[in-house]
Design a protein that fits this description.
single chain, eight-stranded mixed beta sheet, about 35% helix, three-stranded antiparallel beta sheet, about 15% strand, alpha/beta, about 400 residues
Length: about 400
């Protein structure tokens, strides 16, 4: 029989966070092995529970969650998001500018579907959260990766961004705080990106899902708060700040120069209607989360579990010969570099696979985040201190063996 093939739109799409190594880990678990999974920021499995008041309010409102809601979402949670944008100093946002979604992920794809024609280009950071690259490709566009400079704290290279803008460029993606590097961009960098968008009439799509997961007293600036003459699409949600990944409750905010974007906004409205609505139980969590006690501050502040584990993981990793890492200022991840002289890695997917097979530790290789060289990997520092110490010890042992096998010991 004629083989049934996947769409060619998937040719350039990958999502290595849940890729072949994860499938191998599942097989190993079925064989009785215990795997330390450092591949995904799924907070609940590491004992980071959502605030009780969110859970209780969802339970109380469940009887009213069986029907479709407005295609953009219920009024009360959208109003809460509007108030949140005001607290972030994003001006001019009305209820009609807010779309609720099944997590920010659904809305990322929706924003790209509504924007791109075949051959349009979008500037996406390298490294990036790979859904952004995938969403551009699936929408018929071409992702063009601008470099974030590790030597400059993983900040975007504005000159590289400028060189890569063409007549086909439609938008710039900004992931801030950044996944996978944990970088937090200063206002000066954001203003430079806005100036590029202004000069070339580009849309800025801002992924701010980690805007409360900040360490060492750092503050987050929403890029959309810094101008009103550029069109901004800002995406956020409950998954990370409120440890509610499975509730799939996210939002998208359209702000800035909306007058010339009526046709695009009509397209977003059409796409929102076609999916009928976001899940209603998740919507009920939003107002309570945004208006309630912000327990994330306890986790990232002095003595907080996330802060302690960040510091521990950073020290354990950078104590390994040939491993360096820019210390994250935000988010849940580290993106350490392996010295290519000490670790001559040709295929970092195979490297991650070998680490899993030998030491039963699951990480994601750097090229899975569209990084340009096989010399990084991403590690999630969510496991408890004992498991994190164990995992980093296993990584150190694997790297020691790797150096010896390659004559670098």
């Amino acid at each position: 029989m004629r083989p049934i093939l996947k769409s060619n739109k998937l040719d350039d799409v990958c999502y290595e966070i849940r890729g072949p190594a994860l499938e191998k880990s599942k097989q190993m678990e079925e064989e009785g092995h215990k795997i330390i999974k450092l591949n995904i920021g799924n907070l609940a499995v590491f004992g980071f529970d959502p605030p009780d008041e969110i859970v209780q309010d969802m339970i109380l409102n469940m009887h009213g969650a069986a029907g479709y809601t407005d295609s953009k979402g219920m009024f009360a949670p959208r109003k809460a998001v509007m108030h949140y944008t005001q607290s972030k100093h994003i001006s001019g946002v009305t209820i009609e500018d807010i779309y609720l979604g099944n997590g920010a992920s659904e809305l990322i794809v929706m924003a790209m579907n509504g924007l791109l024609n075949n051959g349009d280009e979008v500037l996406v950071p390298a490294p990036d959260y790979p859904l952004w690259t995938a969403a551009v490709s699936l929408s018929g566009g071409n992702p063009v990766h601008y470099v974030c400079d590790e030597q400059a704290g993983w900040f975007p290279d504005i000159d590289d961004m400028r060189r890569k803008i063409t007549s086909n460029t439609k938008a710039i993606v900004v992931i801030n705080p950044n996944n996978p590097t944990g970088a937090l961009y200063p206002r000066e960098i954001l203003l430079e990106i806005i100036e590029l968008a202004r000069q070339h009439q580009l849309i800025i799509l801002a992924d701010e899902i980690y805007d409360k997961v900040l360490y060492d007293g750092e503050q987050h600036d929403s890029i959309a708060s810094l101008a009103d003459d550029v069109l901004f699409i800002t995406l956020n949600g409950l998954s990370k700040n409120y440890r509610s990944c499975g509730y799939r409750a996210g939002w998208m905010v359209v702000s800035g120069e909306k007058r010339h974007a009526k046709d695009y906004i009509d397209g977003l409205n059409m796409l929102a209607s076609m999916r009928l609505c976001a899940n209603a139980p998740g919507q009920f969590a939003i107002q309570t989360a945004l208006g309630g006690y912000q327990s994330i501050n306890d986790l990232v502040g002095p003595g907080g579990r996330l802060l302690r584990q960040r510091d521990m993981a950073h020290k354990l990793l950078t104590d390994i010969p040939g491993v360096t890492c820019v210390k994250p200022k935000a988010a849940l991840y580290m993106f350490p570099r392996l010295d290519p002289v000490m670790y001559p890695i040709a295929d970092d997917q195979q490297f991650a696979y070998d680490l899993l097979a030998e030491e039963k530790v699951l990480v994601v290789q750097g090229t899975g985040f569209n990084w340009i060289a096989p010399d990084h990997f991403r590690l999630v520092f969510l496991p408890n201190s004992d498991d994190l110490t164990d995992a980093c010890g296993r990584i150190a042992r694997f790297l020691d063996g790797y150096r010896r096998r390659h004559g670098r010991g």
